[in-house]
Structure formats: C-alpha cells, structure tokens
Amino acid sequence: MLTIGIAGGTGSGKTTVVQKISEHFKRGEVVVVPQDSYYKDNSDIPLLEDRQKINFDHPNAIDFDLLIEQLDELQHGRTVKQPVYSYLTCTRSATETVTVHPADIILVEGILIFTDARLRSMLDILVYVDADPDDRLVRVISRDIIERGRDVGKVIERYERVLKPMHLQFIEPTKRYADLILPQGGHNQVGIDMLIATIENHLKNS
Questions:
Q1: Which tens digits make up the pLDDT trace of 73-94?
Q2: Domain 2-205 falls in which CATH fold?
Q3: Which Gene3D superfamilies match (predicted)?
Q4: Which long-range CB contacts under 8 A does 41-44 form with residues at least 24 apart?
Q5: 74-92 CB burial, b ≥16 within 10 A, e <16
Q6: What's residue 147's pLDDT?
C-alpha cells in the first residue's frame, strides 16, 4: 500500500493530477481521499449568509481529526463512510455519506493537507502541484461560477481578500515539505509520468 499526498494552491491542477494517476491504474487500485469532504460541519450556524463568511482556506476549517482517523482506517484495510460536504449550503450532510474501500494506492488531495504534521507523517510521498497565480485565478473563477453557483464579482473579491493571503500564509510555505514539486500543474505530463513510475516501482517491490 502507498499513500500519496497531493497539495498545492486552489486552482493549481491537483484534481487533474489525481485524475491522471487514477486513470492509469486499474479500477479498484486507487482510492481518493479529498480534503474538501472533511470541512467542519457548520449546520449550527443558522444563516447561509453567515456560513458563507467562513474562511475555508484556513486550516481551522478542516476536520483533521476525522480525516486522520479515516485515513488510518483505510491504511489498515478497513472501509470508511466518508462525509459529504455541500458548497452550496456550506454544511455537511446529516444523512448522506460515501462508502470508501481501501486500495493499494491512496491519494489524499487538498490545499491544506501538508499543514498538519500528523497527516504529513502518514504520507509516503508528498507532492506539491505548483501553478502560476494568474492561471490559478482563471480556474478558480471558472470553477466557482460553474460548479458552485457563485457570482463572478464575489469570486474575484474573495480571491483577493481570502484566497491569495491564505495561500501565501498557509499553503505556499508547505511546499518545503514536498518530495516532488510539479510545476505547471496538471499540464506537466513528464512530472506526472515520473510520479506514476515511482508508484509502479513501489508496488512492484512491496
């Protein structure tokens, strides 16, 4: 079994890297543990407007205890019930979960996963997906409007007010923990191929 952490700024191409790795291996060989499923439940805050003001790019927004607990279960060959988080309501579902089975390759993906020392210690390979800030902004605007139903003006304002400073304070500094840095994000096929070769070599020799 191999556990790989894939971190990097919002819109850097982490999801693309995860998809390319997953597509390379057979069905059932790879399981993905997305940080975004582990945002803390905010249902105790009654107004959606107030929940939308939460800083989701701060480490305190993540339920690392639950993420670490479920990753440990997967690493020990046990199935988990992964929480489901809604960006539209900014709450965790009280009735819905996703059943996640253990696999030979576990991909933990998210902007803040390297900020927690406990989680870092559980990762065999730490990958930081890097990208130009302008490219990341374009992806953030596209994603938040299409997938999360947000207004373009609010997306840009949030980027300047929250995403950019949080990236500089919490995310960018974690690059120093990376075993591998992938410039150009998901477009770096050479780097992705090198990572896949490393994974294959590890599984072959384990």
A1: 999 999 999 999 887 787 788 8
A2: Rossmann fold (3.40.50)
A3: P-loop containing nucleotide triphosphate hydrolases
A4: 41/83, 41/91, 41/92, 42/90, 42/91, 42/92, 43/91, 43/92, 43/94
A5: beeeeebebbebebeebbb
A6: 60
